[in-house]
Write a structure and sequence with these properties.
This protein has helices at residues 42-50, 56-69, 137-142, 188-194, 197-202, 208-234, 236-240, 244-252, 267-270, 283-295, 310-324, 331-341, 354-364, and strands spanning 80-81, 86-89, 96-105, 108-116, 125-129, 148-151, 160-163, 169-171, 183-184, 256-265, 344-348, 368-376, 383-400, 415-421, 432-436, 442-450. By secondary structure, the protein is an alpha+beta fold.
Length: 451
C-alpha cells in the first residue's frame, strides 16, 4: 500500500530537438540546446542493445506513434520527441528498465513516453505521461559518476538518483534526500507463485481451479509477448532505418485503415481529477474518496464536495482515511469503507483484463479500480501493492497497410490504454497518467456498483 504526497513541479527545462531516426551506428542529426535533462549517451545506449536490451531507436519508433495517438488528448499537436531517452534503472538489479522520451512543444518538455528496456516486461510503450519531471542540474552532474543512476523507485511520478556504492538516494526534482523505501516492481505472476495461503485467499485464488486458470493466463500472455518481440526483432533493421518524416507521413496517410480509434473518459471523475489535494492519503482510501467525489450528491455521502473547496475535500479524504485505516488493504476492506459511507460498493473481477474493465465502464458508467504490484527491498515479507482509479480508456484497432519499405503487419496490432487517476505515485498534480494494458504488473481489478 503506497502513500505519496502530491508535489507541484517546477517549470520544466527547455529543449529543442531535431529529427533523425537512425541506428546505433548511424549519423547524428539531432540538435539539442544544453539542458539539465540527463539524456543518455549514444555509446551507452548502443551497449544496452548489444547486451540484449531493447534498441532505443526501436523504442522511439513506438513512442513516436504513441505520442501521435495521444496528441489531441493532451494538446500535443505539433510537438516533437526527444532524440534520445532518459534511462531509468531497476533499483535492485541496476539494469536499464525504462527509456523515457520527452515530448517537446514550443521549446518546453510537456510530457513523456516511457518505454520498456527489457523485452520481458511487456509491449514497447508502458506509460504516456502528461508531465515531464525536471531534474536539478546538480543531480545531473552527479550522474557523470558511474555510481549514480536514475532508478525506478517512485517512478513515474518521481525520479530518484541512487548512488549504488553508498545507497544514498536523492529526489531529482527537489535535490533532497529520498527517505522512502527503495523498491521495484515484481510481476503479478511472481506474486501469485510466491503467495502464502492467506494471500491466495485474499486474492480469491485459494481455489485450485482458479489458481490454475490464472497461471494459464500468464503463460499465454508470456507466449504472446515473446512472439510479439520476435516479430519486432525480425524487422529491427527496417525500423531503425525508417526516417521520422517517412513514419509521420505514413501515420497521417490513408495507408492504414482505422477500424476504431476511441477514447472514453468518465467526465464526472475526469473533470475533477486535479481536485485531489496534497493530503497524502494511502492509495486505497484515496481511491474510495475520489470515487465518492465523482458521484457528488448521488454518492449519498453527506455534504459531498461539488466544487473545488480545499476544506471540504480535506474532510472527505480524511474521513475515508480514518474509516478504512492505514496499511495494506484488500478489496473487501475498501468496499466495506465505500459501502459504509456511500450508496456504492466494489465488486471484484477475475485478474485484470482490459475487456472486463471496458465492459464494466461501458455498462455502468462508473469507474473501476486497478491493483498493480510492487515489492519492497528483496524480502517477500515486505510485499506491497498499489491501487488506482480507472476513469477512462483508449483503444486503437487499426488495420495496417503501410505501402513503404517493410510494414506488412497483418496481425492484431491493438493498442489499449487505461486512463488513470492516482494519489501521486503514478501521477503529478494533474492526478492523471495513462498506462498500457500490459498485464505483467496488473494484479487485479474491481468495479463500482450500487449497493
Amino acid at each position: 500500500m503506497k502513500k505519496k504526497r502530491m508535489v507541484k513541479p517546477v517549470l520544466a527545462v527547455l529543449l529543442l530537438t531535431g529529427l533523425g531516426f537512425y541506428g546505433c551506428k548511424g549519423s547524428e542529426q539531432a540538435s539539442e540546446v544544453e539542458t539539465p535533462t540527463p539524456y543518455a549517451d549514444e555509446n551507452l545506449l548502443c551497449t544496452f542493445a548489444g547486451e540484449g536490451f531493447v534498441n532505443y531507436k526501436v523504442s522511439r519508433f513506438f513512442a513516436l506513434e504513441a505520442m501521435n495517438n495521444f496528441s489531441s488528448h493532451y494538446s500535443w499537436e505539433g510537438a516533437s520527441l526527444s532524440d534520445k531517452p532518459v534511462v531509468i534503472y531497476n533499483s535492485l538489479t541496476e539494469e536499464p528498465r525504462f527509456y523515457e522520451f520527452r515530448v517537446i512543444k514550443d521549446g518546453k518538455e510537456v510530457g513523456a513516453i516511457s518505454c520498456v528496456a527489457n523485452k520481458k516486461e511487456g509491449e514497447p510503450v508502458r506509460y504516456i505521461l502528461p508531465y515531464a519531471t525536471p531534474v536539478q542540474e546538480t543531480v545531473t552532474r552527479s550522474l557523470l559518476n558511474q555510481n549514480n543512476k536514475l532508478i525506478d523507485a517512485g517512478y513515474p511520478s518521481k525520479i530518484v538518483s541512487k548512488n549504488f556504492k553508498t545507497s544514498r538516494a536523492i529526489d531529482v526534482l527537489s535535490g533532497e534526500d529520498y527517505s522512502e523505501p527503495v523498491e521495484t516492481e515484481v510481476s503479478a505472476k511472481e506474486i501469485i507463485m510466491n503467495a502464502d495461503e492467506e494471500l491466495l485467499k485474499q486474492l480469491g485464488l485459494d481455489d485450485k481451479e482458479k489458481y490454475q486458470e490464472a497461471m494459464r493466463h500468464y503463460e499465454e500472455e508470456e507466449a504472446k509477448l515473446s512472439d510479439y518481440w520476435a516479430f519486432i526483432d525480425s524487422v529491427e533493421n527496417n525500423i531503425i532505418n525508417v526516417s521520422e518524416e517517412e513514419l509521420l507521413n505514413a501515420m497521417s496517410s490513408g495507408s492504414r485503415n482505422w477500424q476504431a480509434d476511441t477514447i472514453v473518459t468518465l467526465d464526472r471523475w475526469y473533470n475533477k481529477k486535479d481536485w485531489t489535494p496534497s493530503f497524502g492519503e494511502y492509495c486505497g482510501p484515496n481511491c474510495m474518496a475520489f470515487i465518492t467525489l465523482g458521484f457528488g450528491e448521488e454518492s449519498g455521502y453527506p455534504d459531498c464536495p461539488t466544487v473545488n473547496n480545499y476544506w471540504k475535500l480535506k474532510a472527505l479524504y480524511e474521513t475515508f482515511g480514518e474509516t478504512i485505516g492505514t496499511g495494506p488493504k484488500v478489496y473487501s476492506q475498501l468496499s466495506n469503507g465505500l459501502s459504509k459511507l456511500t450508496n456504492f460498493k466494489l465488486e471484484t473481477d477475475f485478474l485484470h483484463f482490459f475487456d472486463t474493465v471496458k465492459k464494466n465502464i461501458d455498462n455502468t458508467g462508473y469507474p473501476s479500480v486497478s491493483l498493480r504490484s510492487s515489492k519492497l527491498f528483496q524480502d517477500w515479507k515486505d510485499l506491497a501493492w498499489h491501487y488506482r482509479v480507472i476513469m477512462g480508456y483508449k483503444y486503437v484497432y487499426p488495420t495496417y497497410h503501410y505501402q513503404f519499405l517493410w510494414w506488412t503487419w497483418d496481425v492484431n496490432a491493438t493498442e489499449r490504454y487505461y486512463i488513470i487517476h492516482d494519489n501521486g505515485t503514478d501521477s503529478d498534480d494533474t492526478g492523471e497518467c495513462v498506462e498500457h494494458e500490459n498485464t505483467y504488473y496488473h494484479l487485479w481489478s474491481a468495479h463500482v456498483v450500487k449497493k
